[in-house]
From TrEMBL:
Protein name: TYPE IV INOSITOL POLYPHOSPHATE 5-PHOSPHATASE 9
Low complexity biased stretches: 1-19
GO molecular function, one term: phosphatidylinositol-4,5-bisphosphate 5-phosphatase activity
All residue ranges annotated as the Inositol polyphosphate-related phosphatase domain in the record: 1-275
A Pfam match: Exo_endo_phos2
Family: Belongs to the inositol polyphosphate 5-phosphatase family.
């Protein structure tokens, strides 16, 4: 889980983390017939307006779990922009999860600043080298050295249209036309950022910017002469590496923010031995089971993709 937004934390030392991971576990011998080991690892971290938490259970005990912080602003100390990255392993497969809050702004050229943020995070994020659970090799040191990577958060990329034009396309549910003007997709096509990264198909309305505690975009409540924020998909989930398959990509309808949250569920192939992959036995049945828990409130996944 990742959350971005204003925070009282202003320095790299001002992050919230338990003195150690909260762990509850039972040994294999403590379980009844047919029961799996019960292990829960909960690791919350908050920093620079971003929050990240990861959990694991007895189906895949981590060989390691470490984190890295990257701040934005003056000398990396001021502002609420930055990233939290968590590195972990399940069996012989390494995972990295990045929660970031990139530079805001909808002026022409602001997307280049966001590109620079991404490159800086990729360059500066470093994890301490630790032995994995087999002891025969070291853990990844950089983000892209991991087998599977998921990047989520308020990436702040906007739609390069006027408020009126974008709002008209939203009302038509013409996601394709909106995505053709989405800065993130444009920058990816130009190979300026997130080269080789994947994102699921978007079948839901832009997640930003909403009026307080309402379902109206903020621009609807402003005078035509005032500066209005064009609706945009600021909140995204991307992934990198083989063995990851996205089952669902939807948005929620929580009103506690001027953003709407997005949710992604993935099916991951995990290497459990040097020559064997541990895979799900039933891909279709797992999709049915997880979709029972998704926040479908408007049936956006059933809308036509123009």
């Amino acid at each position: 889980m990742g959350v971005t937004g204003p925070s009282d934390y202003s320095r790299p030392s001002d992050y919230s983390r338990p003195s150690d991971y909260s762990r509850r576990s039972s040994l294999d011998g403590d379980n009844g017939p047919g029961e799996s080991p019960s292990t829960v690892l909960y690791s919350p971290i908050s920093y620079g307006g971003s929050y990240s938490a990861s959990t694991e259970d007895g189906y895949g005990r981590p060989g390691y779990s470490v984190y890295s912080l990257s701040g934005k602003g003056l000398m990396g100390y001021l502002g609420n922009k930055g990233s939290i990255s968590v590195s972990m392993s399940l069996h012989q497969t390494s995972f990295c999860f990045i929660c970031s809050h990139l530079t805001s702004g909808q002026k022409e050229g602001d997307e280049l600043r966001r590109n620079a943020d991404v490159m800086e995070i990729l360059k500066k994020t470093r994890f301490p080298r630790v032995n994995n659970n087999t002891g025969d090799e070291k853990s990844p040191e950089t983000i892209l050295e991991h087998d599977q990577v998921i990047w989520l958060g308020d990436l702040n990329y906007r739609i390069a249209l006027s408020y009126r034009a974008a709002k008209a396309l939203v009302e038509m549910q013409n996601w394709r036309a909106l995505l053709e003007n989405d800065q993130l997709r444009i920058e990816q096509r130009r190979r300026r950022v997130f080269v080789g990264w994947n994102e699921g198909k978007i079948y839901f309305p832009p997640t930003y910017k909403y009026s307080t505690n309402s379902d109206r975009y903020a621009g609807d409540d402003m005078h035509a002469k005032d500066k209005r924020r064009t609706p945009a998909w600021c909140d995204r989930i991307l992934w990198y590496g083989g063995g990851l398959h996205q089952l669902s990509y939807v948005r929620g309808e929580s009103r506690f923010s001027d953003h709407r949250p997005v949710y992604g569920i993935f099916w991951a192939e995990v290497e459990s031995s040097p020559d064997q992959l541990r895979k799900s036995t039933s891909y279709s049945s797992s999709r049915i089971e997880v979709e029972e828990f998704l926040p479908y409130s408007h049936g956006y996944t059933e809308l036509n993709f123009f």
